[in-house]
Amino acid sequence: MLASKLYAPTLRETPADADVISQQYMLRAGMIRKMAGGIYSYLPLAWKSIRKIEQIVHEEMGSIDAQEIMMPIIQPAEIWQESGRWKVYGAEMIRLKDRHEREYCLGPTHEEMITTLVKGEVNSYRQLPVTFYQIQNKYRDERRPRYGLMRSREFIMKDAYSFDIDEEGLDVSYWNMYHAYERVFSRCGLYFKPVEADSGAIGGSNSHEFMALAESGEADVIHCNSCDYAANIEIGKPGIIKAVEEEASELQEVPTPDAKTIEAVAEQLHLPLAKTIKAVVLSTDGVVVLAIVRGDHEVNEIAVQHAVDSTIEPEMATEEELQNAGLTAGFISPVGLKQTETFKIVVDESVMETYNVCGGANKKDAHYININPKRDFNVDDIIVAPIRLITADDACPNCGGQLSIAKGIEVGQVFKLGTKYSESLNATFLNQGGRPNPFVMGCYGIGVSRTLAAAIEQFHDENGIIWPRAIAPFEVVVVPINAKDEALMDVSTRVYEALKAIGVDALLDDRKERAGVKFKDADLIGYPLRITVSKNTLESGAVEMKIRKNGEAIEVPIDEVTTVVADTLNTL
């Protein structure tokens, strides 16, 4: 393609509301434009890269015999109500009504839709196993859309669904998809790590996330330096920390004016954080939950959700919910409190192994010292569970080795659903004995647009994007120093045509711009190779080839350009 025909409106300044590198560079490189919070238009360069990612996905789905379909984005409420998820999915679901007041949603995911479709089409074990997939837009009303394509309200997703006759068959389908995902992300050039994960609102049993490791990632990934253990920190399994046993001192109330955080309390009373307990009040499914961890630990909200057996992810309790529960923000502990149907107390296992610690006195500007949980909590009326976040100081749950924490961007996830949806939606097939059995299902997602952003987060420098070759919008840009010079343009065109002839995705920058502008745009957009045709080319018969990844520049004779470019691209 000719750059003069390409719509790529580059910007020299970074938009003020761009949060992360991928968003900044995609806006500056003329790849996306923001329409509203979390809603973007893809311009030609971004769309080319998206299509390349999708092609990789298509090829790897074909390698495991997954078949492509396309389902409606607008989904009737009835199938979600039948599965029990219409209310469970929460505020992220975008709901609407038609002119007849019938309720619908914009699909955030398609478990209900695919199950409803398949139960009307597949009726015998002879038709199984089967896996269907699609690539389409999904819609989720994010509470805080941010980070460009990494957390948006409308995004491109590949979702797949497998149907088997039993758990053994599901296991095969699950691991086939798992390994296909490994190939997809490897071919996209990402540095990623598969990790154990929570199933969240999708449900089911086993799940793995594929995390592209990057400092801008929202998720924390815990992994072992000695074995292959890796997990989203939300499901990391911390051990019980037993404090050194002490003789229990008398419970005592002390004034702590204006000390609403545990750090402020510890400072006022000259205590280490490990000698305090921290209260976090959450709300889930109409229940207020008081979660208690040591002052030097953090609450794992997903673990709290599991501890109270809720189907809805917890949120921080509101002031009104605190007041209704009789709690005084900043001065809360389980001492003297009892559970009710709408109020639960969950205490971390390590807290129960502490002695003479400090916690809220359940009234303003006061705390207790010398709390001994086994003595002072209503131990028969609380839930004790591992609800603290695992840390790098914990031992590996698998081998006892040293743990590390890294930031990750979730680009894919695989789930074993089992019969969660087939049973609720009455989706069955006839087994060999002629009896109806529920389908055993798996579901699998890849964030296509998020993969694009993750690649930029991993591969960039101060000048712009450094694309992995496989998903670069163009593999090579040919830059004549002066597009007004006919001799330079003639050589540039011949090089460009020769590259296209061998299948290289090339761009000829024929714009009548200064060379410096073209070079800056080439670095910003991130073409893997830049071929420069200059006056020196006319004299020496050689062009300059610059590798974007490492900045290396070499002289290449014109008659060797196609060979050298092809060989170099194969290394990128």
UniProtKB/TrEMBL annotation:
Report the subcellular localization. Cytoplasm
Give GO MF terms, alphabetically: aminoacyl-tRNA deacylase activity; ATP binding; catalytic activity, acting on a protein; proline-tRNA ligase activity; transferase activity
Q: Does the keyword Cytoplasm apply?
A: yes
Signal peptide annotation: none
Catalytic activity as recorded in UniProt: tRNA(Pro) + L-proline + ATP = L-prolyl-tRNA(Pro) + AMP + diphosphate
**GO biological process: one example:** prolyl-tRNA aminoacylation
- Keyword list, A-Z: Aminoacyl-tRNA synthetase, ATP-binding, Cytoplasm, Ligase, Nucleotide-binding, Protein biosynthesis
Q: Which PROSITE patterns does this UniProt record tie to the protein?
A: AA_TRNA_LIGASE_II
InterPro entries cross-referenced by the UniProt entry: aa-tRNA-synt_IIb, aa-tRNA-synth_II, aa-tRNA-synth_II/BPL/LPL, Anticodon-bd, Anticodon-bd_dom_sf, Pro-tRNA-ligase_IIa, Pro-tRNA-synth_IIa_bac-type, Pro-tRNA-Synthase_IIa_type1
Q: How does it assemble?
A: Homodimer.
Query: How does the entry describe the domains?
Result: Consists of three domains: the N-terminal catalytic domain, the editing domain and the C-terminal anticodon-binding domain.
UniProt xrefs under HAMAP family? Pro_tRNA_synth_type1
What PANTHER family is this protein classified in?
Answer: MITOCHONDRIAL RIBOSOME PROTEIN L39/PROLYL-TRNA LIGASE FAMILY MEMBER (PTHR42753), PROLINE--TRNA LIGASE (PTHR42753:SF2)
Q: What does this protein do?
A: Catalyzes the attachment of proline to tRNA(Pro) in a two-step reaction: proline is first activated by ATP to form Pro-AMP and then transferred to the acceptor end of tRNA(Pro). As ProRS can inadvertently accommodate and process non-cognate amino acids such as alanine and cysteine, to avoid such errors it has two additional distinct editing activities against alanine. One activity is designated as 'pretransfer' editing and involves the tRNA(Pro)-independent hydrolysis of activated Ala-AMP.
Q: What is this protein called?
A: Proline--tRNA ligase
